[in-house]
Amino acid sequence: MRILRLGCIALACALGLQPALASQSQSAAAPAGEVTLALTGDSIITRKLSVYTEPSFLTMIELIRGADAAFTNLEMLFHDYETYASHQSGGTYMRADPALAEELVWAGVDLVSRANNHTGDYGPEAIRLTTKHVREAGLVQAGVGETLSEARQPYFLETPKARIGLVSCASTFPPHSAAGESRGSIPGRPGLSPLRFTTTYVTTAEGLEQLRAAAAAAGIGGRGGGRGGGAGGRGGGSPSMTLFGNRIVVGDKPGTRTEPNDEDLKAIAAAVSQSARMADYTIATIHAHEGGMGGRTVPAEFLVTFARAMIDAGADVFVGHGPHVLRGIEIYKGKPILYSLGDFIFQNDTLDRLPAENYRQFNLGPEAGVADFNDRRYGADDSRGFPSDRLIWESVVAIPKFRGSQLVELALHPISLGFGKPRSERGRPMLADPELGKKILDDLIKLSVPFGTTIVERSGVAYVELPVR
């Protein structure tokens, strides 16, 4: 059936018909009793998808459409500049033509997460406008709301085979983006569902004394700034200090410890539990840039704790995104945890406009445009930053298959976003060629080893070896 559909697409292209006609094709039904999901990472979309006709692109699109439900993280705001830019963004201020929400639908996407570091780039009104445009396109969205309760709650996709719940949150965000709850006559604050976390830095006893001495010599006050201070101080308990808001303790081995905020974890777990009792399958998802001791390809300690807690609460799959690179896969209690699926669409080079704050950081005047910003940020030859980082442009589309409540297959299809291509071309995904595909899968296999996960490659697609039940 897939071959027939692709043949129809190719024929339409040859006759000069719009490729968008392919969106009218019907997805192949999965075998009775089986449900498949197509899971992808970050989507920063600024250009149309439906005009392209490469076989490796259309085959990937059909892969996504062929699933019973497809998910991506929408790291973009849709509006027509009806509102002003916030004083602080999640990096580059994100905004695109509202019509591009329809392009995601064309590509087969059904569910989008909205909680990420760009949610508040243009303030509460842009959050509302994006919600409106996404809803009108027919996408199910979760992770933002007029209040914290609304941002936390699950949202549902109805399909012929199953009801799918989605719970979305973020650990990486500017403080103003987090939603707040109403109290008395004070209305709630629109924003995203936050997962806060604490960070503790571990050093040796000698290292702690050196920090105390340096702080005292510099005249830095605050908790633990001098020799007699510090949370925990020199009295009973573990020696510790707080410097510039950072808690530092003595331990056997220097390093960093992170823990999820217990209040947030319990509230998000409650939403997952609600979804699990109201839907056939629940996707829990987080936008988390934070890496562990092994760097950006390793999830932070708090993220591992949080992901497992979401499975314990009833999630059938956990999907991470945010660091713009792949992270390892864990099978926990028979359910998949995808710590990061990297990027799916990464078109941040072709934004239409940027506010003054973005230009000011590079000392660019009022005559500068987006291309000037890109040149200053990345170099005119794209020799630094995102364009020069190969891992950002390599990812996978994950296809878990369930039979009832049991995960029976997890397939990983390598995709390329066009590393090394010009700004006008890169950022759009397609199936990777055999050589690059092998490299992407080999990387993911290695990243998954610490989680006890075995992944095998067969004919250009990788499969996770699942526990026998």
Radius of gyration: 23 Å
Helix count equals 11
Query: What is the number of beta strands?
Result: 24
Biggest sheet, open or closed, and with what strands and sense?
Answer: 10 strands, mixed
Please state the average pLDDT score.
90
CATH homologous superfamily of the largest domain, by name? Metallo-dependent phosphatases
CATH class of the largest domain: Alpha Beta
Percent range for β-strand residues? 25-35%
What is the annotated CATH architecture of the largest domain?
4-Layer Sandwich
Architecture overview:
The protein is α/β, with parallel strands linked by helices and 469 residues long. The chain folds into 2 domains: 2-195 and 260-346 and 389-464, Metallo-dependent phosphatases (Purple Acid Phosphatase, chain A, domain 2, 4-Layer Sandwich); 205-250, no CATH class. It is built from 11 helices and 24 strands. The protein has helices at 2-14, 55-65, 100-106, 123-137, 148-152, 205-217, 262-276, 301-313, 356-360, 370-378, 434-448; strands at residues 34-44, 69-74, 111-113, 140-142, 144-145, 155-158, 163-170, 191-192, 197-203, 240-243, 246-250, 255-260, 281-287, 291-292, 295-299, 317-321, 329-332, 335-338, 343-346, 394-403, 406-416, 430-431, 455-458, 461-464. The strands form 5 sheets. Strands 1, 2, 3, 4, 19, 20, 21, 22, 23 and 24 form a 10-stranded mixed beta sheet that branches. Strands 6-7-13-16-18-17 form a 6-stranded mixed beta sheet. A 4-stranded mixed beta sheet has the order 10-11-9-12. A hairpin with a 2-residue loop joins strand 23 and strand 24. The chain starts with a helix and ends in a 5-residue tail after the last strand.
